[in-house]
Amino acid sequence: MNNSKIWLSSPHMGGSEQKFVQEAFDTNWVAPLGPNVNGLEKDLELYLDNNAHVGALSSGTAAIHLGLILLGVKAGDEVICQSMTFSASANPILYLGATPVFIDSESDTWNLCPVALEEAIVDRIAKGKTPKAIIAVHLYGVPYKVDEVNAIARKYNIPVLEDSAEALGSSYKGQKCGTLGDIGVLSFNGNKIITTSGGGAIVTKSKELKDRAVFFATQSRDDAPHYQHSQIGYNYRMSNICAGIGRGQMEVLDKHVGLRREMNAFYENLFKDIPAVTVFKTDENISFSNYWLSAIEIDGNNEIGVTSEQLRLFLDEANIESRPLWKPMHLQPIFEHYPYYGATVSQRLFENGLCLPSGSNLTNEDRERIRSSVTAFFKNKEL
Ligand SMILES: *Cc1c(COP(=O)(O)O)cnc(C)c1O
Predict the structure, then answer these.
(1) Which CATH class is domain 254-382?
(2) Which of 108, 136, 210, 382 has the greatest number of beta carbons closer than 10 A?
(3) Ligand 1 centroid to residue 360 C-alpha, Å
(4) pLDDT(364) > 60
């Protein structure tokens, strides 16, 4: 029997990536600029929105860092951040010497809770500081409550940095994720919906802002024949080789979104008769999810006494990778002493949730192995 590892989310090439990379070699554009970088930016702009301006960068984390700089975040400022996320959403706040203020999730989208968000803003203002920015995240490709978050952001005149690292291909009320905040962030890390082996992008609403991001990303070089600098610079531009992979990946993005959504439908079907398990879904009337990762929540008080950790270990025995949900930032040793607003929704999700294999390259045989393992796990428990 074939018992090779079934991964949570692994790179899935479309076919023409190597052609773009070969072109880069043939023309000697082996540098962090060139036709593939420009081409990938154009491809993304066409895909996202006619008014989007995209700067290709070395990572999604770099895009968040530059995004906060563009929004004027400086040392001593406060920045609001969704607690339940990958640490890369929050680390750039610390790079800038600013203070993160973490917010709980709500149960519908598992993302930024609008009630706790407003409570935090009101309290921070009362304490003497208006937050400089709000970092909102579309977890696992499921859009956050965009209208609600934007309304609060506008009410208090605070810009939104939209962390769409997991949500390329998702949309909210017909508008693509990445274009829903004041500044958007994409990631093309190896495990994301498409990959450049490592990379990211910043999405802005004007060419001036995009040019400014690229200026910072290329060492803030002033216009002079020699190297002249009047601001701090960064080396954050994307390599033309990596961008070549990205151009190939853009050709299969929508196809891969469709395949990830099929994985989600597979899990919905697999768990439909197991009352202890809920498959994480978006409200399809409002938003469209790429289902980058399919995730489940196991009822913490279920009658058969199963836990997500037991299921994870059981699947691991069968060489099937699964992973707990993101551990909230306010529970992380590096961040736990910063302010936090909300209740225990994100903590409950962390304790009871699990991400399951979700790649667009999973086969029927992989699905059958997952099905039989999950079925065996719950059968054992019921006996
Ligand atoms: C992956 C990810 C990032 C960071 O992207 P990198 O390209 O890995 O730097 C940021 N935020 C979230 C929510 C992510 O999942």
Answers:
(1) alpha beta
(2) 136
(3) 19
(4) yes
